[in-house]
Design goal:
- The chain has 271 residues and is an alpha/beta fold.
- It is 58% helix and 9% strand.
- The chain contains 13 helices and five strands.
- The protein has helices spanning 2-34, 37-53, 64-75, 79-84, 92-95, 105-116, 121-128, 132-146, 161-173, 185-195, 212-219, 234-237, 255-268, and strands at 153-157, 177-182, 199-203, 227-231, 248-250.
- It has a five-stranded parallel beta sheet with strand order 2-1-3-4-5, sandwiched between helices.
- Helix 1 crosses helix 3, helix 6 (105-116) packs across helix 7 (121-128) and helix 7 packs across helix 8 (132-146).
- The longest helix is centred in the N-terminal third of the chain and has 33 residues, at 2-34.
- The protein is globular and about 55 Å long.
- The termini are far apart.
């Protein structure tokens, strides 16, 4: 009897550890969909509590990440109510009117699950509880919607020249204007004041002691603008223990991921 109890304890601990490893990526996804750290993290906390208390709910699949994401959607579809506050006259979409993307929730979710979280279309269909055909159609429609995003002004904060130029090319190829590339906090603040960008794309760690987060904090004192942070270690940033970005993408990233992140940030963040 004791051996069985110990075995169950070990199994439960392994499940809890696997769930814990998945949470930073679930936070990233939830924040991206809602456009809010607070709203996204609230749903993640609910999901984590249920998953730890009832691990059998995610035991139907071998991949813990897939199981946790599926549970997240099964508990409640949070995206209708949570997104309601992101539209209207004070949002980026409102200010730029109909020129920005207007993705349906299903399109947005499939796009983020595949390009941001790396799920296959089949896995995304499982997470959302829809057919693969519906998921594929939604992804195709989402990619088409990305082409409709109007040109906006984007400030790039990146200290590695090759990466900065690559990012700038992706931004321009997506139809946007790069108002400047800043390698330091000082340059970033000056460029933001000069050009009033619609969006900031910032690397977290800059050269020396400079920080992309610090630069953005200074910029946000004089303007409200959506920000996408780039990092090679998103799990280190998405702890849910402090004020953290709503939009985080990983290095290296492909053009589709960056385009999707830009469209999502513009479409869900009120400024």
């Amino acid at each position: 009897m004791r051996e069985k109890y110990v075995a169950e304890e070990v199994a439960s601990k392994k499940v809890s550890e696997a769930i814990t490893r998945t949470l930073p990526f679930l936070r990233r996804y939830a924040r991206a969909v809602t456009g809010s750290q607070q709203q996204g993290d609230e749903w993640v906390r609910l999901c984590a509590e249920v998953a730890v208390q009832q691990p059998e709910l995610i035991a139907e699949v071998e991949d813990t990440k897939l199981g946790v994401f599926a549970l997240f959607h099964r508990l409640r579809q949070p995206f209708g109510d949570l997104e309601a506050g992101a539209s209207g006259g004070e949002s980026v979409r409102g200010r730029l009117k109909e020129s920005l993307t207007d993705m349906a929730p299903m399109q947005r979710q499939v796009l983020l699950l595949t390009v941001l979280e790396g799920f296959t279309v089949g896995d995304a269909a499982h997470v959302l509880g829809v057919s693969i055909d519906d998921a594929e159609r939604s992804l195709e429609e989402a990619r088409w919607e990305l082409q409709r995003v109007a040109s906006v002004r984007i400030l790039v904060i990146e200290d590695e020249a090759v990466i900065a130029l690559d990012v700038a090319d992706i931004v321009r190829n997506a139809g946007h204007e790069v108002v400047g590339i800043a390698a330091t906090e000082k340059a970033a603040i000056e460029l933001a004041k000069k050009h009033s960008p619609h969006l900031v794309l910032a690397d977290i760690q800059l050269r020396g002691s400079d920080s992309g987060i610090s630069a953005v904090n200074q910029i946000m004192k004089s303007m409200s603008v959506p920000v996408i942070f780039v990092t090679g270690f998103p799990e280190r940033l998405l702890t849910g223990k402090q004020v953290e970005p709503a939009f985080v993408i990983s290095k290296p990233f492909d053009p589709d991921l960056l385009r999707a992140a830009i469209a999502q940030a513009l479409d869900t963040v009120s400024i």
